[in-house]
Amino acid sequence: MKPPAFSTNLLLCHLSPDARACLLKHATAVQLPLGTVLCEEESFPRYGYFPLSGLVSVVTVMPNGETAEVSFVGREGVVGSLHLLGSASLSTRWMMQLPGSGLRVPFTELQQSFDSCAEIRGRILQFVQEQSAVVAQIAGCNRLHEAEQRLIRWLLMAQDRTGYETLDFTQEYLSQMIATQRTTVTIIAGDLQRRGLIRYSRGKIQLLDRPGLEAATCVCSAVTKRLLRELYEDKSVVKAVVSAGNTRPDMHRSWAS
Ligand SMILES: [Zn+2]
């Protein structure tokens, strides 16, 4: 059977052909519609997912059902990586925040590959380290920086992890993501639009001026972008992946720029 295409997942791209074949032997290509839960809180995943497009939201779930997004995963990583490290029960849920597609691998097979192959283990651990650093940066950002900076940082991070120029997010969702009132998001989005930095219409946010947005936000955007870049330093591979992944030509920009 022909192995499924992997070309837009950076982690898979940075494995040797042998290691990649070992993982893809058990992989199935799947569509991941908006809202799909890839792994529930307090439960062990049945599958690991290598996203090919879209954006996975990492959400902390409180005992009373309240939730807060703490990070996200795009084409740079794999969902299920934390569960590979041990048997702790996690209060974290992984779900699709922007629809896309991915490669699904039975978790037992993923665990076996992680345990037996040093190269796969090394790549996944590198990704886990990047995720941990991003979560720490976001925690500091939420505590120290203004709502406008947090909103811009969040949009830039989402773009860095998807390559999309336009992001489909409602103001309600954005207000939850940056832990502020919806009316505050409305005011900020209106102001950013007047300054020519974004275009916002019916839940679609187009980032018009990336340098301008970077200048208007806090340092956290640059830090998380650097962490992402350092994860895969070989830019020639990144560029090849970006061009191979242009399935939505109106929504892509250079990953590594
Ligand atoms: Zn910040």
List the helices and strands and how they pair.
Blueprint: H1 10-13, H2 17-24, E1 28-32, E2 37-39, E3 47-61, E4 67-73, E5 92-106, H3 107-116, H4 118-144, H5 147-162, E6 166-168, H6 171-177, H7 182-194, E7 198-201, E8 204-207, H8 210-216, H9 219-231, H10 235-244
Antiparallel strand pairs: 1-5, 2-5, 3-4, 3-5, 6-8, 7-8
Zinc ion is lined by residues 141, 145, 149, 153, 218, 220.
Please tell me about this protein's structure.
- The protein is an alpha+beta fold and 257 residues long.
- It folds into two domains: 10-140, Sandwich (Jelly Rolls); 146-217, Winged helix-like DNA-binding domain superfamily/Winged helix DNA-binding domain (Arc Repressor Mutant, subunit A, Orthogonal Bundle), CATH 1.10.10.
- It has helices at residues 10-13, 17-24, 107-116, 118-144, 147-162, 171-177, 182-194, 210-216, 219-231, 235-244; strands at 28-32, 37-39, 47-61, 67-73, 92-106, 166-168, 198-201, 204-207.
- Strands 1, 2, 3, 4 and 5 form a five-stranded antiparallel sheet that branches. A three-stranded antiparallel sheet has the order 6-8-7.
- A hairpin with a 2-residue loop joins β7 and β8 (204-207).
- Bound molecules: zinc ion.
- Zinc ion (ZN) binds at residues 141, 145, 149, 153, 218, 220.
What's a quick, concise take on this entry?
With 257 residues, the protein is an alpha+beta fold.
The CATH topology of the largest domain is given as Jelly Rolls
Approximately what portion of the residues adopt beta-strand conformation?
A: 15-25%
Segments where pLDDT lies below 50 for 5+ residues? 235-257
End-to-end span in angstroms?
37 Å
Bound molecules: zinc ion
How many discrete domains? 2
Strand runs, count: 8
Order of helices and strands: HHEEEEEHHHEHHEEHHH
**What's the CATH architecture of the largest domain?**
Sandwich
CATH class of the largest domain: Mainly Beta
What is the average per-residue confidence, as pLDDT, rounded to a whole number? 87
